[in-house]
Design brief:
CATH superfamily of the largest domain: Ribonuclease Z/Hydroxyacylglutathione hydrolase-like
CATH class of the largest domain: Alpha Beta
CATH architecture of the largest domain: 4-Layer Sandwich
Shape: elongated
Distance between the termini: 42 Å
Bound molecules: flavin mononucleotide
Number of helices: 12
Largest sheet: 6 strands, mixed
Amino acid sequence: MNIIDIKSRKGGKNMKILNKLIAFSLTFVLILQSISCAQNSANNNLNVNGVTSKVNNENFKNVKLKYMGQATVRIITEDNKVIYVDPFAGDDYSMPADLILQTHSHFDHADLEKVSNRNQGCIVITEKEAIVNAKHQTFDLPFVKVVPVEAGYNQNHDVNSCVGYVLEFKNGIKVYLSGDTSKTNQMSEMASMNIDYAFFCTDGKFNMDNNEAAECAKLVNAKHNIPYHNDTSNSGIRFDRKKAEEWTAPNKLIINVNEEIELKAGEEKNNMGNSKTLVIYSSFIGEQYSVGVIEKGNTEIVADMIIENLAADRYKVEPKNDIYPRDSYKKLTEIASKELHDSARPEIKDITFDISNYDTIFVGAPVWWGDFPMIMYTLFDKVDMNGKTIVPFSTHGGSGLSGFDSKLKRLYPNAKVLKGLAITGTDTQSRKDKVKNEVEKWIKEVIN
Ligand SMILES: Cc1cc2nc3c(=O)[nH]c(=O)nc-3n(C[C@H](O)[C@H](O)[C@H](O)COP(=O)(O)O)c2cc1C
């Protein structure tokens, strides 16, 4: 794909495309980048009374959650208490623990010795403390409320010796970790818990698969659904990104291994009154322009920031069939060029949202040949956003917003299209803090 290809095409449409791309061609050099708790709890004793540290209200920050692979999660609370859930994967156990949670005793959830660095009074809660006399207990600790919930319901996991946990932090954020499970009886009651972030195992071998876990996600009805414990290969990474991509749960959020995200309370984030916000975007992984092979697309990184900031819902526009290559940026550009030339409408996966539930819709995509990827037009053809407030954003290699705003105005003449944001693709991968500041500033400016 280069300017020569474009010139060689006949007709006014191609000249238009050429004009659109001249500005971009100056900056977008199409040379393929070389892809380029003191150890007092080793015997699992519950030591709730040992918690003496006071919550320091002045230093409240957001809760931080790091996914470490398999079912292992590290959480740092607003008041800097450190929680490890199902210690096993990863090697970043240097922060001293204040609370260790184990969902059940299988080796890949119960490597408590890995958490050898523990603060005095560190609490350990395993399934044995969580279920007493066949009853699920609750632990109201000074820095987090721990509510064990049902887990199991399959031949490998017995409901009497497995739990999931719902954690409620002081800023109101609620996180659910399913542990190892299939669909449970309790899940249909869990929607009333108003969970913000829900992790579901989706391995499909020892537990439920992607389909069943998507059903469970609908029942639990959390704001964000995160796939974990989905790798059956025993690889070092302990996370199957492809399987996660294929999961069709609503409001899906994929967290890569070793990625840390900030969890903010919905009320704090959403400064748009009672309106509900949806972020619709496309984004592609694999070999990409100027960033080599990426595991999370540039636009998805920006979408995540918007979603986190506004407690928005998510819909990622994804092709129904695996039509975009991940191994070659060049091949991808050729396919995209043909799609643009043909005004193609590639088939997309099911639309899982109801547009009537939303007032404000952020619409984002990578710039492909000076335009939205054609797959976005498949969605635009199916979803009427007239009457809504639309906020466009792009990531790009030099072409900026590429008229996303005016294109949306043309498509939806009765929508209010607000000022868009264009982010340089490479910055999303290597200058996340800078991008985050830009995104926050823009959101404050356009939404008030
Ligand atoms: C098929 C294709 C066409 C592209 N065309 C342009 C373009 O016209 N202008 C531009 O600035 N960047 C272009 N890029 C670069 C992408 O817009 C940029 O890398 C973007 O951040 C990728 O986002 P993603 O990782 O979310 O898919 C193109 C990339 C691809 C794969």
